[in-house]
Amino acid sequence: MSGSYSSSTDVSNVSNLLFIARYLNVNELEENLLLCYPLTKRCTGEDIFNAIQDYFCENEIYWAKCCGVCTDGGKSMSGCYKGLRGRIKIVAPHVTWSHCCIHRQSLAAKPLPDSLKEVLNQSVKVVNSLSLEINAEAKLKLF
Questions:
Q1: pTM (two decimals)
Q2: Per-residue confidence at 80, pLDDT binned at 50, 70, 90?
């Protein structure tokens, strides 16, 4: 299993932690939204890790089955010591980390002309809509 983690603020000014899991189901790679959790405290690496750890414990998901983590480049996510990345390394040193390709593209697109930004925005919307499909049956197969 590998996962993409993202923290974003919604219209009601609440930060939400999203966890999209990718895993092998028989011979097919599947991707589903596993967790959407409001972060009522601060959004530190420790707070984010604790929210994920609590969810993993409640649902009997084991870090030993996780092989990779993908996040944005913010310190609370990518920090090697106090960020989510560093906290995961303590409990699962085998897990690799990568910087989200969509986030990197977004950062690279800031100086783009408006016409190209619109193409990128539409591409991101398509990828996000595919990523957020929830399939309860497939989610159960993860466990």
A1: 0.62
A2: confident
